[in-house]
TrEMBL record:
Taxonomic classification: Archaea, Methanobacteriati, Methanobacteriota, Stenosarchaea group, Methanomicrobia
One cellular component (GO) term of this entry: membrane
Keyword Plastid in record: no
PANTHER family (alphabetical): BLL1027 PROTEIN, CYTOCHROME C-TYPE BIOGENESIS PROTEIN HI_1454-RELATED
UniProtKB keywords: Membrane, Transmembrane, Transmembrane helix
Name of the protein: Cytochrome c-type biogenesis protein
Source organism per UniProt: Candidatus Syntropharchaeum caldarium
Length: 218
């Protein structure tokens, strides 16, 4: 049975993931690039992105089923992981440089190199989405890792897939709004860059509270 706050959290985590410092700056560029390649390319791209996350969710669910005998422990562990990820986000700047986020400079150029100089229709957009799902893992790790931890703890394929789809929707909606929106909407998204420190703090607090809620079953 669905636990209502978790689907809401999954969707919120998706939105917060796209607002991370190494994802948000390249979103307008990738969205514009995809929109110019074809009318349905942005949709194909977010479809590929969603499938990459759902596959990760299936793997997490499989692990949870294998470890089903330790279900209570998995719930506590998942909550602990979420709290640690939240603390990591809040205190990232004070950690060792080896643990700092992966720089986003040149990420779009590397993506283009992986899929070719141009997106070849919807198929190319889908491939780019799959690639983004992997390339962005270091950037969205705290949020995505927390969702996967919840999925592993619940160990239900359908529920886990739903959470990952909602997470993907949280990332896809802003992306599609930029790809199909006006210049004004793009400028508004770019304007969020000045609020990234506050968004980052909010993300950390949300993760910590969600971890306490999930781990303790409050």
């Amino acid at each position: 049975m669905l636990d209502l706050p978790l689907p809401i959290l999954a969707f919120l985590f998706g939105i917060l993931s796209i607002l991370t410092p190494c994802v948000l700056p390249v979103i307008p560029v990738i969205a514009a690039y995809a929109a110019k390649a074809g009318k349905f390319v942005p949709i194909a791209l977010v479809s590929g992105l969603s499938i990459s996350f759902v596959v990760m969710g299936i793997v997490a669910s499989t692990f949870g089923q294998i470890m089903s005998a330790f279900n209570d422990l998995l719930h506590h562990l998942a909550g602990l992981i979420m709290v640690i990820m939240g603390l990591y986000i809040l205190f990232e700047e004070h950690l060792s440089p080896l643990l700092m986020k992966v720089p986003s400079n040149g990420i779009f150029d590397r993506l283009r190199a992986n899929v070719g100089g141009e997106i070849n229709g919807a198929g190319g957009g889908f491939l780019l989405g799959l690639t983004l799902g992997v390339v962005w893992v270091p950037c969205i790790g705290p949020m995505l890792g927390s969702i996967l931890a919840m999925v592993a703890a619940d160990a239900e394929f359908m529920y886990g897939s739903l959470l990952l789809l909602l997470y993907s929707a949280g990332m896809a909606i802003p992306f599609l709004a930029i790809a199909y929106g006006s210049n004004a909407s793009v400028n508004r998204i770019k304007g969020l860059s000045s609020h990234l420190p506050a968004i980052k703090m909010l993300s950390g607090i949300v993760l910590i509270l969600a971890g306490i809620y999930f781990g303790l079953g409050i």
